[in-house]
Amino acid sequence: MALTGLDIYKQLPKTNCGECGLPTCLAFAMQLAAKKTSLDKCPHVTEEGRAALEGASAPPIRLVTIGTGEKKVGVGNETVLFRHEETFYHPTGIAITVNDDLEGDDLEKRIGAIQSLQFERVGQRIEINLVAIRQGDNSSAARYAEVVKKVMAKLDLPPILMSSSPESLEEALKVCAEMKPLIYAADSNNYEAVAKLAKDHSCPLTVKGNGLEELSSLTEKISSSGIQDLVLDSGRRDMVSTLSDLTQIRRLALRKTYRPLGYPTIAFTSEKDPFQETAQACAYIAKYANIVVLDGAEPWQLLPVLTLRQNIYTDPQKPIQVEPKVYEVGTVIDKSPVLVTTNFSLTYFTVEGDVEASKVASLIVVVDTEGTSVLTAWAAEKFTAESIASAVKKYTVEEKVSHRKLIIPGFVAVLSGKLEEELPGWKVLVGPRESSGIPTYLKNTWKEVSL
Question: Could you give all domains of the chain from N- to C-terminal order, each with its CATH number?
Fold first, then answer.
């Protein structure tokens, strides 16, 4: 159970020195109980007090790192149930399976398919994070280790070693232990042997239970042996039960500070239909899997999964923005059209994509609206005639083109008159209301007005 503020206060020095940044030890105790400060802020706490308060100062969900170097994946350490309460910090790790029964060209094709799962969206690169190498029922330890070695030679991704055999896991660790793979999994039948492997190689370990009660019991036994980097699998595979378990684990860890379940979670898709598998993976990302493992490796399957993850794991108080400036799309000449938009990334990259689709080289003037879309910025008086005129002058657009025509979004057509007053000599054209209308507008309307 979580310690109360008064419980914590009893273990503090009660000097009220203020060195922690708070006026009294009681105030510090209340902040520590609410997880709003850390115990290391108190320089005078005794070793006995520190030991007693260790649980109170630890995060409710442990941060577990899989892999090494730039590609390492950190999962867990979330502090809220809902994104709007604060934000989520460690994006769900997305893993694709490779079965060790694949041979020759089939194995190469699978590896190639995983390598291609990289996309760019709103100026950010989104990709899968992990590869889950699964041992078949009839496979030998030598065969499993051989496939692990081949996969690791081709993929620069942290591995998940999936086998119920301690012997096979030990052989696989001989070829990839330095990469700090996630070992999957310790269950009620093998946990002592598998936990020993995790401890000997300093690798994170998945604990697999048959329901939350057994899972809690196993994590207590394993953590008591000194292994703290654990990932939880309740053992369920149907979607309803899995979502229920994921939600209960998150609530018990955050609301009740229940330490046996205070670890990140892993979920596996079970749907055979690829469309259903994608939907299932998306549901697990939303509630509340820290790692999701899929069998499907088609780009069209993974793009919505990665897009959802990108959307959920951004700070809702800090919209994704692009740098306000003039962007050139295509080989621009002095007669190229000039369009205006905001610096909200989704807006800009949508406009940029539609300009590219038009095959008409253009300039895009991006106005600083603090990362808000056209209508939102207009309603908040951040996308105004004054701010647009200021951007046009600041970025010396008149030196880049020989004409004096400016295309504004159709949704803010009301700004055209005022903008012409702010930019003497310029003619303001009202473009399409939707970005999808830009190709037709540039090919037809612009061609007519530019003559």
Answer: 5-57 (1.10.15.40), 64-312 (3.20.20.20), 326-449 (3.40.50.11600)
